[in-house]
Amino acid sequence: MIDQKYLDKAEVLIEALPYIQRFNRKIVVVKYGGSAMVDNELKKNVIEDVVLLKLVGFKPVIVHGGGKEISRWVGKVGMEPHFVNGLRVTDAETMELAEMVLGRVNKELVALVQSLGVKAVGISGKDGGLLKVTKKLADGEDIGFVGEIQEVSPKIISDLLEKDFLPIVCPIGMDADFKTYNINADDAACAIASAMNAEKLAFLTDIEGVYKDPKDPESLISELHIHEAHELIAQGNIGGGMIPKLHNCISAISEGVNRVHILDGRIPHSLLLEIFTNKGIGTAILREDEKRYYHEDD
């Protein structure tokens, strides 16, 4: 008699099959940040998920943050982290430190991917002119070397994907005078996914997804069309930290990304559960013409 656990594994693989077929050779941008970056076990789970996507035929691109690690190093050198409207005030010394820390994080991720047998290349938005920026202001206030993305030149990523590498991007860019700027990682992921016409953009965060009522854990929304996302923002029920993420989701879809997923990176293998199962576990933001739940057509 075959053990039920093996039959269950077969069922999981069969459920994943239509998604593997549908997204074969499609670009998936994963914005990697939050607790999943500082917990070693979660980090390993995320990288295993992305490597699996690569090995079953997807074209993943990782865009990573590193805010917690930057804050840790800012504290180590005796400086005090300072934020305005959620944006890190970045003077020249902080910028130098941020670039160093993000570069270190980037190469750690490269090593982790390559330890699982997949070739990876770590780049920043400075490489190949990938991310061109201007100075970003916070409500008119100068917050230093924080960049607003003006242009994405994705050829370097396309070339890496064509040569079968997994690109890992840290959110540093340059302005027209070749000065270096720190960029919000969500903004960078959104801009890159849009420029690459990605099939999917997944945000790994420290929350389960979008709630109708942030105080009610039972009100998690599995899928939202763009007009519903606009309505939720207008109603004022969305938590403050989720509003810029939803705006990024809406922007990415309006620029050609098919689906955007908001996932809890603290849940092991949340990326696979969202992409390869019929209902998923986070929140997916859809184009207006996109049907809910792919499996309804089955």
Structure overview:
- The chain has nine helices and 14 strands.
- It has helices spanning 4-22, 40-55, 67-76, 92-115, 155-162, 185-195, 226-235, 242-254, 270-276; strands spanning 27-32, 59-64, 83-84, 87-88, 120-124, 131-138, 141-152, 166-170, 172-174, 180-182, 200-205, 223-225, 259-264, 283-286.
- The strands form four sheets. An eight-stranded mixed sheet has the order 5-8-2-1-11-13-14-12, with helices on both faces. A two-stranded antiparallel sheet has the order 3-4.
- A hairpin with a 5-residue loop joins strand 9 (172-174) and strand 10 (180-182).
- The longest helix is centred in the middle third of the chain and has 24 residues, at 92-115.
- The two termini are 30 Å apart.
Largest sheet: 8 strands, mixed
Helix-residue proportion: 25-40%
Number of strands: 14
- The portion of residues forming beta strands comes to 15-25%
How far the N terminus sits from the C terminus, by CA atoms, comes to 30 Å
List keywords for this structure.
298 residues, alpha/beta, eight-stranded mixed beta sheet, two-stranded antiparallel ribbon, 40% helix, disordered C terminus
SSE layout and pairing:
Elements: H1 4-22, E1 27-32, H2 40-55, E2 59-64, H3 67-76, E3 83-84, E4 87-88, H4 92-115, E5 120-124, E6 131-138, E7 141-152, H5 155-162, E8 166-170, E9 172-174, E10 180-182, H6 185-195, E11 200-205, E12 223-225, H7 226-235, H8 242-254, E13 259-264, H9 270-276, E14 283-286
Parallel strand pairs: 1-2, 1-11, 2-8, 5-8, 11-13, 12-14
Antiparallel strand pairs: 3-4, 6-7, 9-10, 13-14
Helix pairs in contact: 3-4, 6-8, 7-8
